[in-house]
Write a structure and sequence with these properties.
This protein is mostly helical. 44% of the residues lie in helices and 5% in strands. It is flat and about 85 Å long.
Length: 167
């Protein structure tokens, strides 16, 4: 049995040959399934704009079912669903407005102030902590390690005379 091509949009597999794949990918059913898949990930603003431009589907509103499904050219959104979309869009735009400064750029003074407040707190009396380095067990038997493998300590960071040994 030869190779098979599987289309995740259509949940279907067929013989993997160029002509069959080309025919499938250009089919209307594949295009519809692909569009339906990506419609799930649309932004609420785009959905609201599209749904407000459509007329409500009479069959869907009265019976609750439509033969065209997601391909229907009329809106399947009820008024409460539209209101919910409007609320989501409003909340999203409000959060963007509050997060972004008026001119579009953050204030450099705020950034510097936040950096120095968080990183260098003068009220703190603790000494700065340095990362600890543990010598691997395999290296404990070696007495003459190269300087690049020596453990890092605060004293070794302050002592620059060892750099000449690096060669």
């Amino acid at each position: 049995m030869g190779k098979r091509y599987y289309c995740a949009y259509c949940d279907r597999s067929f013989k993997d040959d160029t002509e069959a794949r080309k025919k499938h990918l250009s089919s209307l059913q594949h295009a519809k399934n692909r569009a339906d898949h990506y419609n799930i990930y649309k932004d609420p603003e785009v959905i609201l704009k599209e749904e407000c431009a459509k007329m409500p589907c009479k069959r869907y509103m009265t019976v609750g079912d439509c033969a065209f499904g997601l391909g229907c050219r009329y809106s399947h959104y009820t008024p409460p669903m539209i209101w919910e979309l409007q609320r989501l869009v409003h909340m999203k735009t409000e959060s963007r407005l509050h997060a972004m400064p008026k001119n579009g750029w953050p204030n450099p003074d705020d950034i510097t102030k936040e950096y120095f407040e968080n990183s260098m707190n003068p009220s703190s009396t603790e000494e700065p902590s340095y990362p600890t380095w543990f010598k691997p067990l395999e290296l404990h038997d070696y007495s003459r390690l190269p300087p690049s493998l020596w453990p890092i300590t605060p004293e070794s960071l302050a002592d620059t005379s060892t750099f000449k040994e690096w060669g």
